[in-house]
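Hi team,

As requested, here is the filled-out complex form for the 3,4-dihydroxybenzoic acid run. I kept the field names the same as last time so the parser does not choke. Let me know if anything looks off before we queue the next batch.

— J.
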Amino acid sequence: MRTTVGIVGGGPAGLLLARLLRRSGIDCVVLESRDRAYVEQRQRAGILEQGAADILRECGAGERMDREGLVHDGIELRFARRSHRIDFPSLTGGRRVMVYAQTEVVKDLIRLHLEDGTPLLFEATATAITGIDADRPVIHFVHEGREKTLTCEYVVGCDGFHGITREAIRGAITTYEHVYPYSWLGILADVPPSCDELIYAHSERGFALHSMRGRTVSRLYLQVPNGSGVDEWPDDRIWDELDARFAIDGDWKLERGPITSKAVLPMRSFVTEPMRHRRVFLAGDAAHIVPPTGAKGLNLALGDVAVLARAFIYLHTTGSSELLDAYSDTRLRRVWRAEHFSYFMTTTLHLGPEQTPFQTRLQLAQLERIVTSRAAAAELAENYTGLPLY
Ligand code: FAD
Ligand code: DHB
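And here is what came back:
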């Protein structure tokens, strides 16, 4: 098989890249190791920045999002048993976010690709990339029990943190990493959310987040020690702990319901520099990871491929590789900003295992600053709703 752009990985980054390229007449093939049902059901992110939602709309993938997604104008910060609202539009010149799950973005993009006849191969596992130093890199993959090859002009690794593409260019990149001393226990529950907007809670017992998947399903997270297993967390213990961490002086009640999924997620920051070697590019989690506290992972992935698609389209229409050559630097500026914001949100809201009362006081002073200073609140709101792509 041959193609112009070989895309490894059919997560949100790979699927959106293929959509943007195909709409501009650029030939591509997507290889995805899992089956369709698995990819469509993998529970992950839930928040789209305004810019990410706009990109989906512009490529014709925003119709269901605009019908079923929930537009949110702010978040609630809870600490010291009090609740404070951060209003995004008034702090950012009108910017908002969209609550629409990654699973739904992926379903919408897959449906469009299947309708359009995009070569999107499920259960096609890339095993190696050769010819990276020649003009035509080759992706080796296994599909339907057979070893096959895809010869490409360019390869884009959208194959997530555990993919093979970053490994294939290991000798040409530098990586930066920070692992956090806590994890998240994430649950889905069949109960209407107990809030209109997301709640990020700092408490003496650790961090908690109340999010949602539409009007009838709640998504909640608890900070837990590294190495925790879901077996240690029977349903009642989860609800009791959430109750304790969200508690405020005043009227508020967390509604409980049947828990339908539980998972423990490790937290890591990770950046690859540069995000390209010769004709091989990295995008999304293959290139960088953020801890989830700032809701940036999915948005960074979509931002990467929007910039990369524009660069391929520029090459296709003008013959100039100027934008492709700028891709890594352009994105790394945004990636490091998001890394800083995610680190800031994480370390301001979580309690480290060795945390001293002094450090907790500093966190509370920072949170107090955010809710009493317009400038500090605007800094949070601008980062949360998303900075411009360029
Ligand atoms: P992925 O979604 O990881 O997609 C990569 C794809 O490549 C996968 O479909 C994989 O099957 C495929 N693949 C891998 N190797 C190969 C191979 N060799 N051959 C072919 N295909 C391959 N972000 C938030 O903002 N909020 C959250 O709550 C949140 N929760 C998360 C929970 C988990 C468990 C994880 C892992 C991430 C979470 N994130 C969250 C981050 C967010 O979901 C990611 O940033 C986003 O999925 C990145 O998209 P991607 O397309 O780059 O990578
Ligand atoms: C969700 C996850 C996040 O990490 C976050 O900051 C906000 C929402 C979610 O899964 O809904």
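Two things worth flagging: The longest strand covers residues 174-189. The chain has a mean pLDDT of 97.

Thanks,
J.
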